[in-house]
Specification:
RNA Polymerase Alpha Subunit, Chain A, domain 2; 2 domains; 5 helices; about 15% helix; Ribosomal Protein L25, Chain P; mainly beta; four-stranded mixed beta sheet
Length: about 220
């Protein structure tokens, strides 16, 4: 994905505020062999770019002063309540150095799994992105996760995911965390008993040996 940036001469709170008033967003590019570089970007173009998944999870082509630079998005600072990007950070990419990056997971096939199709379960996405380690050229925009084999009572773990060539997962804490859990849907309320089974005599039969109730005396003429 490509975007255009411009060199920024001034820095500081006041300069950044004036820059935003002109429809530009201040930013910085750091890392690699070069010194940190102050940049600015068109806010409207940047606003539309950050809504795309690829802008957050892939190596970007930044055009600056007629040259292209490979960078990764590292941080976006948003205004607390306005639709305004306050600042943006990028990191230079070295083609020979492996990088850490969070990559989104794209799930598919759950409706074909035995758990969902026949056992009345649903697939609960516990994790929607994973951190990976790879060279920039091997960085995937997303990773597909096939859920068609899900079964009731089982979960899908990180080790069950097929990663692209050259990509390894990075975990913090648990070595094989749960990615998708299978959750049984609560059954419907039990049906009411059949009408004929539910029908009961209005009054229980008189006990054996019980005296019949006395008749009321006839009215005098």
């Amino acid at each position: 994905m490509k975007f255009v940036a411009f060199e920024r001469a001034k820095q500081g709170t006041g300069a950044s505020r004036r820059l935003r008033n002109t429809g530009r967003t201040p930013g910085i590019v750091y890392g690699g062999a070069g010194e940190p570089l102050l940049i600015e970007l068109d806010h409207n173009a940047l606003w539309h770019a950050i809504k795309k998944e690829a802008f957050h999870a892939s190596v970007l082509d930044m055009e600056l002063a007629g040259k292209e630079h490979k960078v990764l998005l590292r941080d976006v600072q948003m205004h607390p309540y306005k639709q305004l990007i306050l600042h943006i950070d990028f990191q230079r990419v070295d083609a020979t150095t492996k990088l850490h990056m969070k990559v989104p997971l794209h799930f598919f096939g759950d409706e074909l799994s035995p758990a969902v199709k026949t056992d009345g379960c649903i697939a609960n996405h516990v994790v929607t992105e994973i951190e990976v380690l790879c060279l920039p050229t091997d960085l995937p925009e997303f990773i597909k996760v096939d859920l068609s084999g899900l079964k009731k009572g089982a979960s899908l773990h990180l080790n069950d995911i097929v990663l692209p060539k050259g990509v390894s997962a990075v975990t913090h804490g648990k070595n094989n965390p749960v990615i998708v859990s299978v959750v049984a849907i609560a059954g419907a309320a039990p049906e009411a008993p059949a009408a004929d089974a539910a029908a009961a005599p209005a009054a229980a039969p008189a006990a054996k040996g019980a005296k019949p109730a006395a008749k009321a005396p006839a009215a005098k003429k």
